[in-house]
Input
Amino acid sequence: MRYILAIFLSVYHLLSFGVDSSPQLLRACINFTNNTVTISWKTPTDNCGSFTKYNLYAKTETGTFTQLAEINNIATNEYLHSLTEPNTKWQYYLATKFACDNSTLLISDTIAVDITYPENIQLDSVSYDLNTQDIIAGWQPNPSIDTKRYELFDFRSGDGDSIGTTIDTNFNISQARSGRFPIVLATIDSCSLSSLLSTPHSPSYLQAGIDTCEREITLKWNTYIGWGAVDSQSVYVSKDKINYTKVSNLGGNINSYIFTEFVLGDTISFYIRSYTNKGTITSSSNIVTISTRNLVVPDYLYLANVTVNDAIGNNQAPIALEWETTKVQDIELFQINYGLSPNTLIINREVNSTNSSVYNLIDTKSDGKTQSVYYQIVAYDKCEDPLIISQISQSIHLDISPLIVHNEYINWKNNVDEYQLLKHDGSTWKQIISQNNPFTFTDFTDSSGCYKVVAIEQENSPEKTATSHSNIICFSKPLVYEVPSGVNPNSDNNRFIVVGQGIDHNKSHYAIYNRWGQRIVNNPTNKPWYLDYQGKHVQNGIYLYTLEIHSETGIKEITKGTFNVIR
Output
């Protein structure tokens, strides 16, 4: 009873003097580098100012407590106990002199050197933040009482380079160190003892590629690393920055997905969400965005001209094409279709796009001398899909047997302004006639020579007019000629002249010689001689002529003879 009463009185005495508590030892931490134990405590509240010093007591595992130190500075809260050799079996308590009665000794609890490591914990997940795209690590609090902080490491090297420390249960990896790498976690207590490193974790990393021809976006990613297993994964999609929606549930070992629910012009973003522990823990991959665009379709594809590249004397004549277009950035190639009917066109050839707006082609597969050929141009994109198709036009084919006939030029933007019939005079082409409609002449066979038809487009833009040439047709009558046997200056038969048909007078000529062999005339065959020489009429008699005559078809004949001049 006296013992209980003494305790009651002691407590009453302490309370009456306002002492809050006994000193509280916090920890005894050993530093194995220098064999020093740091003992720290929480300074007790001293409302009446009666504390004067501390007495620190210590013992080993088998010994008894003895005073280790007397500490006269009451504000001190730490003491360094230097050991001669490492020993983790030491125990300590602290006595404070005195309570407010100046006699009662306040005793702390007893603590041993702290060699208890924090519990080993694991990261819950490492995930990309969907808003910032920073990599964030998260975990549950360590249940160890003496947990002081958490430290995270970059585990690429296998040893771990410190990324940073925190007292929270999450950490922004990206703000501390850029890049993506395996991350591990350790718990540190107040004695700087560390738990074991956690299992390395890495979030899924997503990549995407688009095949615009197949209209497919292929997603590929590495699966989450760090969990024992990935239970499942989901694909989330956002179109044109609208909220993400889940479009597919996948197994935990899948690492690719093909997305087709889009049209060109959409901007599509993706991320992969991984799940473990029946969906209670998740991780999001990075976001990838594919910006597509609509194919640029040219405003027009215009077959500007189809013309026959012919020349006098050619056996065959290729056909020249010219076409125009705009907005060529998505044109991969042009396909040239041709045929003898607009309804039966087949592929002639392909021409690669050169990002030019004007193209020219000589089609040597067709012979413009023998027939009219229809053409159409088709522009294709790189996916081999047609972007735009031109109108159909055709070459002009001329025929004379005996009528002059040719087809109409079709599908110029502003139609044909006029047709011109040209004839070659031996050196240049000269216009014979022009009209708005195709030519149809009768009784044409009496005019031998070389002919072609030219169609002229009505002006479709300033200073821009196309012309389409037909094939060239040359024909002539058989070479027939005669010369007079006698000439009378006083009659209707008063001149020497070569007459006939099929004669090329530009190349043909004759010469006249008198009885003494003197040449007195040298004329082309279409120029008559009126029996004069040096301003006087020649005498009657016999004269010699020589004749070199060329046909319109290239035949050459040389002949000679005599004729009489009589009165």
The first strand starts at residue 24 and ends at 31. Residues 2-17 form the longest helix (16 residues). The two ends are 193 Å apart (CA to CA). Confidence is low (pLDDT under 50) at residues 1-20.
